[in-house]
Amino acid sequence: MTGYGRARLERASVISERIHLRPIIADDASAAFALIHEQPAITDWIEWDGPERVEELEESYAAWPTDTDEMTGYMFAVIERASGDWAGSVDIRHLKEHPVATLGYLIGSPFQGRGLATEAVGHLVQLAFEELSVLLVRAEVFEGNQASIRVLEKSGLRREEGREITCEKRGLQVTKHIYSISRVEWELSAPARAAWQVSASRAD
Ligand SMILES: CC(C)(COP(=O)(O)OP(=O)(O)OC[C@H]1O[C@@H](n2cnc3c(N)ncnc32)[C@H](O)[C@@H]1OP(=O)(O)O)[C@@H](O)C(=O)NCCC(=O)NCCS
Q1: 53 CA → ligand 1 middle, Å
Q2: Which residue, judged by its Cα, is nearest atom 39 of ligand 1?
């Protein structure tokens, strides 16, 4: 399905109780490298094994927003407001063939357990429904990633039973569960809404 009024976000940011989400930039790489490189608490739970060199992150962060045949993706830095520190990153991929967005996120170990991911994921879900006009928001979670499952459930996403998929991680097959929330479910849950600052154009 194409042509459902796809928006392209030129810039988006939001400030809320604990966090500031703003577009990721190459200058974020060194703070991110310290939190991700050789940090199994992060890389055991995501398909990517993390960066080997800080330059890899610089290049990858400079490339967002990113366009492929399948999606337009946006990545945000999560800045903890209390400290001003770079705490993690979140991303949203807006699929081109279907009105669906998928989420990704990580929060560095020193910043975990403070509600930052829950706040950020809530904001991304809002952005997806209000600004990208998708009908469904999805995330894929490795089996056993209870912290991430909790974040998704607190944000209103539910497991799609019987829709497990597998991926390869360090030579092993890993089961991933799919979590999702529809636009109707989100509207009915009367979620708290954050004040996103967005400039957008139409992509098609
Ligand atoms: C998942 C992750 C983003 C959570 O970040 P966070 O900022 O600590 O999350 P929050 O503080 O918002 O919420 C975490 C929730 O999980 C709970 N939790 C943490 N570890 C848990 C565990 N082992 N079992 C059950 N619940 C757990 C916390 O208690 C909290 O729930 P609560 O508010 O009801 O107490 C972070 O742990 C991370 O980056 N992990 C590695 C990368 C990753 O898994 N990314 C997601 C891929 S799908």
Answers
A1: 26
A2: 106
* Among the listed residues 64, 5, 25, 9, the one whose alpha carbon sits nearest the alpha carbon of residue 199: 9
CB contact at 8 A, 108 and 35: yes
Rounded CA gap, 67 and 75, in Å? 12
**Which tokens in the block code for residue 2?**
């194409």
Does the beta carbon of 151 lie inside 6 Å of ligand 1?
yes
Q: If pLDDT is split at 50, 70 and 90, which confidence band does 16 have?
A: very high
- Is the model's pLDDT at 204 over the cut of 70? no
Mean pLDDT calculated for residue range 112-116: 98
Chain segment 28-52, per-residue pLDDT in tens: 999 999 999 999 999 999 999 999 9
Domains (range + CATH), the chain: 7-135 (3.40.630.30)
